[in-house]
Amino acid sequence: MVQNNQHHHHRRRRNLLHNVDNKNRHSNDDDVDDQQNDGRQSINKDGNIIGEQNNSKQQQQQQHRSMNRNVFSHGNRSHVYSILSLPIWLRKIIISMSIMFIVYIYHHHYNNNQNRNQLQSSTNITMASINDNHLGSPFGQFKQCSNDYEQDRLQFKSCTPYKCGRFVSDSIVNDNEALELRLFAQTIFTMVQPNGGVAIFDLASGALSNGTQFINLYKLLKHLPDREKVIKQKIFDTFHVVRKKLLQTITMTFGIKSDHLYLTSPVFFTKINSKQAAKTLNDEYWHPHIDKFTYNTFHYTSLLYLATYQEEFSGGRFIFIDNDEKINNTIIEPKFGRISFFTSGSENQHMVEQVSNGERFALTIPFTCDPNKQVILPTTTI
Ligand SMILES: O=C(O)CCC(=O)C(=O)O
Ligand SMILES: [Fe+2]
């Protein structure tokens, strides 16, 4: 009964509105259709309800037409009213469909954006994750050398790379060697004030960061009778073993003569923690850089990791930046005992991600083709 009344009421409102509509519809394309619709013609002519004889199909057609007009013709107030004239069930359908449409558009847009983000991060290649165990011959890839070696090639024929590239290995340095070096670094860094985010110790010169300054540990120790307690000879012995293995690996991988490649300076330990980066030259870590130009002595860079990503620190991954859009980058996740080595020119521009938690220890061991830039490490008889 209530429904009947409502229905009746709606139709009456609709008919009233149709009269107004008709005035506006002379130029409307729908007119042709409308003329052909008997039910509709009677409504328009009489302004009366003849719905009883109309079957529901006709009603629906009318409602659709009136809906279409309302949706597509703007600036006509009567059209707005005629939406209200639709039966509640139809209004509900329209509203739900509109909501579904909005939700669909939103999802489509959101998914597209997400895909784009995923695509960006998925195009970053993790060359060595902490879960990988790169045993045996070094794992990596060759890359065309940049033009940075043109001059070197004339000067250092049998050492300058013809094929460049980047590699990792988890089996060249053993755990004992890595542990010894790690403990040494820890001891050294407890001797100085923590400096923002980066502490540095150069094994070649003895330079040790202390706040924003550097002190020279070797000079200080010179006058200390029990200096052997601070830096044991053993650490230099271990370092020499590691250096030899790295030199062998690099020369074999890049096909150069091992007696033409030399250790160069700085040979440095770093401890990076999550605090702000220090205002010293070590700021370089956070920025994309090219070792050959940053240090001026490097032809081949090797890195020995003394801490493991995600276990001991967050962030701090090593990233080769292969293009400016920060996609298609190659990532190395630091892992205790892992080495990476690469040619130091612009073919291997890189950076270190900010460390967000914990402490990251690493040792940079560089090599040069220039005998004049060779460095011989001191012994404890410094
Ligand atoms: O610690 C690292 O992973 C790399 C540091 C670096 O880029 C450098 O020593 O030049
Ligand atoms: Fe670097």
What key phrases describe this protein's structure?
single chain, Jelly Rolls, nine-stranded antiparallel β-sheet, 382 residues, disordered N terminus, four-stranded mixed β-sheet, 19% strand, binds fe (ii) ion, alpha+beta, 15 strands, binds 2-oxoglutaric acid
Structure description:
The chain is α+β, with helices and mostly antiparallel strands and 382 residues long. It folds into two domains: 2-86; 126-373, Sandwich (Jelly Rolls). It is built from twelve helices and 15 strands. Strands 2, 3, 4, 7, 8, 9, 10, 13 and 15 form a nine-stranded antiparallel sheet that branches. It is elongated. Residues 1-58, 61-76 and 113-120 have low confidence and may be disordered. The chain binds 2-oxoglutaric acid and fe (ii) ion (FE2). The site of 2-oxoglutaric acid has 9 residues, from strand 14 and strand 15. Residues 1-16 have a biased composition (Basic residues). Residues 39-57 have a biased composition (Polar residues). It comes from Dermatophagoides farinae (American house dust mite).
Give the SSE map:
Blueprint: H1 2-24, H2 30-36, H3 38-46, H4 56-72, H5 77-84, H6 88-122, E1 125-128, E2 139-143, H7 150-155, E3 164-169, H8 175-190, E4 198-202, E5 207-210, E6 213-216, H9 217-222, H10 227-230, H11 233-254, E7 262-263, E8 268-273, H12 291-294, E9 300-305, E10 313-315, E11 318-320, E12 330-332, E13 339-343, E14 350-352, E15 355-368
Parallel strand pairs: 1-12
Antiparallel strand pairs: 2-3, 3-13, 4-8, 5-6, 7-15, 8-15, 9-13, 9-15, 10-15, 11-12, 11-14
Helix pairs in contact: 1-5, 4-5, 8-11
Bound molecules: 2-oxoglutaric acid and fe (ii) ion.
The site of fe (ii) ion has 3 residues, from loops.
